[in-house]
Write a structure and sequence with these properties.
six-stranded antiparallel barrel; 34% strand
C-alpha cells in the first residue's frame, strides 16, 4: 500500500511539476533550394582501336598533349611480349650499369650501397612503398656492379648475359610493330567513364538555355563507340546547370558564391553563380561554375541536390526556452546543481520550432557560457537566476 501511494504521489507531483527540460546540442541550419540538373565540362573522347587494350593512365591522372594514353595490341601475344620486354629492359639496364667502365667503384661504390640500403630501410620502417621499385632497382644495380668488380668469373658471366639480353631485347622490339599507340590530342585528366554526353553537353551550349532545353537532355539516348577508351577532361572549370522554381530567381546574382550539395556524393562543393536565365512557366535555369579540380566530381552528370545560400552552425534550442532576463539580456536558463542559471545567447538562425544560437557573454571574464550538452529549462511558472528547479 505504501509503495502504491508513493507512486501515485510521484505521478501527481510530476504532472504538477512546472519545469520541463531538454538537452542543448550542436546543429546546423541552412537556407537552401532543391535543384536538379546536369554537370557540363569540356571533354574529349579518346578513340581506341580493335585489339587488346593496355591502358597506361590511371583514373584522374594528368596527361600532357602528345603523351601516350594506351597501347592497343593485335592479340594476347603482343601483351605477353610487352611484359617480357619490360623485364628484359630492366635486367639489361642493370647489367649495362654493372659492366660500364665509368660506373662507381671503390669507396664511392660502398658509400652509394650504404645510402641505398638506408633508403630501403627507412621506407620499410615508415611504410612508404611509393618508390620501392626504384629503390630496389638502384640497390640491385650497385650489388651487381660490386660483384662484377670483385669476381673475374662474374665479369665474364655478366658480359655474356648482357649480350644475350640485348639480342632478346632486339628480338622482342621487332614484334612491337603491330602495336598501336594512343596519344592525347590535348592535355587533360583521363577518365575511363564515358556516357555519350561528352559532345552533346558542352560549355558553349549553356548560353540561353531554357528549362525545356535542359529537360530535353533527359530524353536523349546517346551512344558511345565500342572502341572509345575513355575521355580527357580538358579544362579544370566545370558547370552545373540546374532548374529551380521561378520564385527563387531573386536569390541568385551573377558572381555570388554558393555551396552545392550533391546527393550522389553526399558532399558539398563551393561554386559561383555564372548565369541566371529567364523565368519560363514558373521555372528558371541557373548555371553554376566551379574551378575546384576535384576527382570526385569528374564523373558527375545528371545530378540532384540543393543549392545552399547560407549555413550556420551553433546550438539548437527550442523557441519556448528563450527568455529575457531582468537586465534585458536574451538567453536561456540551464540546470546547474539543481538551480536555474542564466546563459546569454545570440540568435544565428531560426526555423518553425527552434533557434540556432551561440553563447554571447558580455566580456572575456563572463563565465555564463552556454555549451552543447547543457540541460535547458523549457517552461515554468516563475523562473529567475538561482531558483531551485529540482
Amino acid at each position: 500500500v505504501a509503495i502504491v501511494v508513493y507512486l501515485i504521489c510521484s505521478a501527481w507531483v510530476g504532472i504538477r511539476d512546472p519545469y520541463q527540460f531538454t538537452v542543448a546540442y550542436t546543429d546546423t541550419m541552412e537556407t537552401s533550394v532543391d535543384a536538379a540538373g546536369w554537370v557540363v565540362r569540356s571533354e574529349q573522347p579518346v578513340a581506341g582501336a580493335e585489339g587488346v587494350v593496355q591502358l597506361k593512365r590511371g583514373q584522374g591522372e594528368k596527361v600532357a598533349k602528345g603523351k601516350e594514353i594506351a597501347v592497343v595490341y593485335q592479340d594476347e601475344t603482343y601483351v605477353e611480349n610487352q611484359e617480357e620486354l619490360l623485364q628484359v629492359k630492366n635486367d639489361l639496364s642493370a647489367l649495362q650499369y654493372a659492366t660500364y667502365s665509368e660506373s662507381p667503384s671503390g669507396t664511392a661504390l660502398e658509400d652509394q650501397m650504404l645510402s641505398a640500403m638506408t633508403s630501403l630501410r627507412t621506407a620499410a620502417s615508415s611504410g612508404n612503398y611509393s618508390s620501392l621499385s626504384e629503390q630496389t632497382e638502384t640497390y640491385r644495380k650497385l650489388v651487381l656492379r660490386r660483384e662484377y668488380l670483385l669476381s673475374s668469373e662474374a665479369t665474364a658471366a655478366m658480359t655474356q648475359a648482357a649480350a644475350d639480353l640485348q639480342a632478346r631485347y632486339d628480338d622482342l622490339q621487332s614484334y612491337q610493330s603491330g602495336a598501336t599507340s594512343i596519344k592525347a590530342q590535348e592535355s587533360g585528366l583521363f577518365s575511363s567513364y564515358v556516357d555519350g554526353y561528352e559532345t552533346l553537353l558542352t560549355p558553349d551550349k549553356l548560353d540561353g538555355l531554357s528549362p525545356k532545353d535542359l529537360a530535353a537532355f533527359s530524353q536523349l539516348t546517346p551512344s558511345t563507340d565500342a572502341n572509345v577508351l575513355g575521355k580527357l577532361v580538358t579544362d579544370s572549370i566545370w558547370y552545373y546547370a540546374v532548374t529551380v522554381p521561378g520564385d527563387c530567381v531573386t536569390r541568385f546574382a551573377v558572381g555570388d558564391s554558393v555551396d552545392v550539395f550533391f546527393n550522389s556524393l553526399s558532399e558539398t562543393f563551393p561554386m559561383e553563380v555564372f548565369q541566371v536565365g529567364e523565368v519560363q512557366e514558373d521555372q528558371v535555369v541557373i548555371v553554376l561554375r566551379s574551378s575546384q579540380d576535384d576527382d570526385k566530381a569528374e564523373d558527375l552528370r545528371q545530378e540532384s541536390g540543393r543549392v545552399i545560400f547560407y549555413s550556420s552552425e551553433g546550438i539548437r534550442v527550442p523557441k519556448e526556452a528563450l527568455r529575457v532576463s531582468k537586465d534585458g539580456e536574451r538567453g536561456v536558463y540551464v540546470v546547474v546543481s539543481q538551480k536555474a542559471r542564466f546563459r546569454p545567447v545570440k540568435i544565428l538562425a531560426e526555423d518553425e520550432n527552434s533557434y540556432l544560437v551561440k553563447a554571447d557573454p558580455t566580456d572575456e571574464e563572463d563565465t555564463r557560457i552556454l555549451r552543447a550538452g547543457d540541460e535547458i529549462v523549457l517552461a515554468s511558472e516563475e523562473l529567475y537566476d538561482g531558483k531551485v528547479v529540482r
